Predict the structure.
Amino acid sequence: MNISFSKLFYVVASIIGIVAIMYFGKVLLIPIFFAMLFAFILYPLVKWLNKKGMKKVFGIIFTLGGVFILVSGVLVLFSAQIIDMAGQYSKFLAKLNETLDKSITFLNNKVQIIPDIESQEILEKLSNVFSDSSFLIISDTVSVTGSFLSFVVLATIYTFLILFYSEHLTEALSRFNPKNKRKSFIEMLREVQQVGQKYFTGMLLLILVLGVLNTVGLLILGMDYAFFFGFLAALMAIIPYVGTTLGGLIPTIYAFVTFDSYWYPVGVIGIFWFIQFLEGNYLNPRIVGGNMQINALFSILSLIAGSVLWGIAGMILFLPMVAMLKVVCSHFEELKPVAALIGERIKEVHREPEKGVLEKVLDKIKG
């Protein structure tokens, strides 16, 4: 066995450089990567509209407009329940204070190991925190909303441009390869597009199924705002491994504060535990997992790395990015060990170059 320290240095330097670019350029890169994945999802529909006779630019506008109407409708439904919940904020805060007071009294009476806790002092500090931070919450909300809207506008513009120049970009990128390798390179780009498309279409289907299951379970339990809590938890399933748990924590706290009986939060925990069991063992592997083919180690590492570098956006983006990286690595001899390391099985990935149209016609004639 031999080792080349020069190659090792280049590899380490390249990894450090890529990480630095991703971290310091995240303001530019995050909307571009979201736009790229959105373009992967919408490209088949735009292509279908184009085949039906609609001009490309109008097909893209029609597709993006349909997505905008759909997302706006969902946001309207969510906003109505959020506004209703905000109207009960004072009632919720009073119930929270009462629950906290009962919990402190229980600890003082039943747990003798720790010294008594002054409930009045804690409640006063809690009230001061809520009252002092009210204006900060409003200003932060305005700031976050402005940043989110600017992000949405940028991502929409990038999506439009990627879809509009898709053929041009594909042809331009293929010119970086020798002529005899361009067909394989285009096939690699097609596989990358299909991985991103299948992942996000699978995630959308998974969110819909989980949202319906969560909502039905909360309605059976008699929870208020079942639609909001159910689909909020389903949306958080985009974050692998921890999203469903965090999504179930919110309605559990709400049930603990708003209901007198402790059986309601226990029921919420039971419902979300059962749904998470279904999601982890049956729904996710069949709807989404089969499209990823990433082993659990690199799935968790991509989740952690995404959180460190890009926050919540990274937790959403890095898993499909790693899956697309695996596809890219599988097409290069020097990088096939990386593809085997990331994938579920350690095996050599060998692909015969896809035959062109003329070669397929000749095969049929020979047959």
